[in-house]
């Protein structure tokens, strides 16, 4: 028997990330254009880094508020008032050690082991993996891909509910599909949750990367204050802070002590000086977010135009997030084909096989990068596709 055999089943069975496996295969290739990971190519802007450095210089290196420093929770409340309307109590915000940790804490809070959680697929692999590690079973409600792109028939969510279901997890705008739930979709899902007494875990991390308006429709647009919704979010994407590992949860103030406890017994809080950087991001970072979105939109168009012009891909221009999700005619298994694309086109993509039911034939390309690099990647991919 090996040491592994003596581990708990959730740890033993946790899947290796297929994205990381592909990245490990190609990471040292000379000239490879990496579109596999979900982040932009720019470092955190100076005004945010400076605010954090200042905090560090000021000796903000002690244990701090578990839920987050008051100025950051107040800045989050004003951010929501500016972008989502209504009034928001700072007591409804909890600072966490990343969007990923927000997901884990939300699942821990509402899903006892043995629960089922319904989620729409294709979906970012970490969501189902986090559910499985916590002892829950992810139950897929697949999005459909048709002429107009990805759509969600919310009846599929209703049909997936069983007596064991505790929550519906919805990520919109979606990683990897770029699909964005409409206000009607959200109202329907909320209705299903209310009827069955379920929680909603709302991952709206890409809410500002929405190309048809200022921000994507949110459960905040349709919910009442006493609905059972936990919002998970992050500083990572809007402000180029993926390496910081800071996120937040928005939930009823009634859950304050619970989230404080869960934070205490996991990370015991986020470094105070980093939280100063996060305050700067929220208070001074609006132009930066708009610039990120403009950059993503123009790279999206370059990539999608080039791929669609081959007439050999199935895809639509994504309405939100910063990923193109496409299938190539003649290539049915994205996993093996992803390695071939590294070898033959020198472009790194994430294989849709890791994204749950419905993604097996698709590739995900992150386009939040310098325009010339995205254009070069698009042209290499187009050449590769025409040679199949
Ligand atoms: C849908 C979704 N949710 C959550 C996260 C977590 O982001 P982070 O842990 O960097 O804050 C990501 C990151 O890629 C994501 O795509």
Characterise the protein shown here.
- The chain has 388 residues and is an alpha/beta fold.
- The protein folds into 2 domains: 3-44 and 287-386, Aspartate Aminotransferase, domain 1; 49-284, Type I PLP-dependent aspartate aminotransferase-like (Major domain) (Aspartate Aminotransferase, domain 2).
- The chain has 13 helices and 15 strands.
- It has helices at 9-13, 18-26, 46-57, 70-84, 99-110, 125-133, 154-160, 183-196, 256-264, 272-284, 286-309, 334-345, 371-386, and strands at residues 33-34, 93-96, 116-121, 137-142, 144-146, 149-151, 165-171, 199-203, 229-234, 247-250, 313-314, 323-328, 347-348, 350-351, 362-366.
- The strands form 4 sheets. It has a 7-stranded mixed beta sheet with strand order 2-10-9-8-7-3-4, with helices on both faces. Strands 11-12-15-14 form a 4-stranded antiparallel beta sheet.
- The protein is globular.
- The mean pLDDT is 96.
- Pyridoxal-5'-phosphate is lined by residues 38, 98-100, 124, 171, 175, 203, 205, 234, 236, 242, 247.
What is the CATH architecture annotation of the largest domain? Answer: 3-Layer(aba) Sandwich
Number of strands: 15
What's the level 1 CATH class of the largest domain? Alpha Beta
CATH topology of the largest domain: Aspartate Aminotransferase, domain 2
Order of H and E elements: HHEHHEHEHEEEHEHEEEHHHEEHEEEH
Number of helical elements: 13
Q: Which sheet architecture does the biggest sheet show?
A: 7 strands, mixed
Q: Which ligands, by name, code or SMILES, are bound?
A: pyridoxal-5'-phosphate
Share of helix among residues?
A: 40-55%
Task: List the strand order in the largest sheet.
Answer: 2-10-9-8-7-3-4
The structural domain count equals: 2
CATH superfamily placement of the largest domain:
Type I PLP-dependent aspartate aminotransferase-like (Major domain)
Query: Mean pLDDT, as a whole number?
Result: 96
Poorly predicted runs are none
């Amino acid at each position: 028997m090996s040491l592994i055999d003596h581990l708990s089943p959730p740890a033993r069975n946790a899947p290796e990330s297929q994205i990381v496996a592909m990245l490990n295969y190609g990471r040292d290739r000379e000239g490879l254009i990496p579109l596999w990971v979900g982040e932009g190519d720019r470092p955190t802007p100076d005004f945010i880094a400076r605010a954090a450095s200042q905090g560090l210089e000021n000796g903000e290196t002690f244990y701090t508020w578990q839920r987050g420093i008051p100025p950051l929770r107040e800045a989050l409340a004003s951010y929501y008032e500016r972008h989502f309307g209504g009034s928001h109590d700072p007591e409804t915000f909890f600072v966490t050690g990343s969007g990923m940790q927000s997901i884990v804490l939300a699942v821990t809070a509402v899903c006892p082991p043995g629960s089922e959680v319904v989620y729409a697929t294709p979906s970012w692999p970490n969501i189902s993996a986090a559910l499985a590690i916590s002892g829950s079973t992810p139950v897929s409600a697949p999005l459909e891909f048709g002429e107009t792109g990805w759509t969600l028939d919310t009846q599929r969510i209703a049909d997936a509910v069983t007596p064991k279901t505790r929550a519906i997890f919805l990520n919109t705008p979606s990683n990897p599909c770029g699909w964005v739930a409409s206000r009607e979709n959200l109202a329907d899902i909320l209705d299903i949750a209310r009827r069955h007494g379920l929680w909603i875990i709302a991952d709206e991390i890409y809410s500002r990367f929405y190309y048809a308006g200022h921000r994507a429709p949110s459960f905040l647009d349709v919910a009442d204050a006493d609905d059972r919704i936990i919002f998970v979010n992050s500083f990572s994407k809007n402000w180029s802070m993926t390496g910081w590992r800071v996120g937040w949860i928005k939930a009823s103030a009634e859950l304050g002590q619970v989230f404080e406890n869960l934070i205490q017994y996991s990370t015991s809080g986020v470094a105070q000086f980093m939280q100063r950087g996060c305050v700067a991001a929220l208070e001074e970072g609006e132009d930066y977010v708009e610039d990120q979105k403009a950059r993503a939109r123009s790279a999206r168009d370059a990539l999608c135009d080039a791929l669609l012009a081959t007439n050999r891909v199935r895809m639509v221009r994504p309405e939100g997030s910063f990923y193109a999700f496409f299938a190539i005619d003649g290539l049915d298994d994205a996993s093996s084909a992803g390695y071939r694309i590294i070898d033959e086109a020198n472009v790194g993509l994430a294989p849709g096989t890791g994204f749950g039911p419905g993604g097996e034939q698709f590739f995900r390309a992150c386009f939040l990068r310098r325009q010339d690099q995205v254009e070069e990647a698009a042209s290499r991919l187009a050449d590769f596709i025409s040679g199949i």
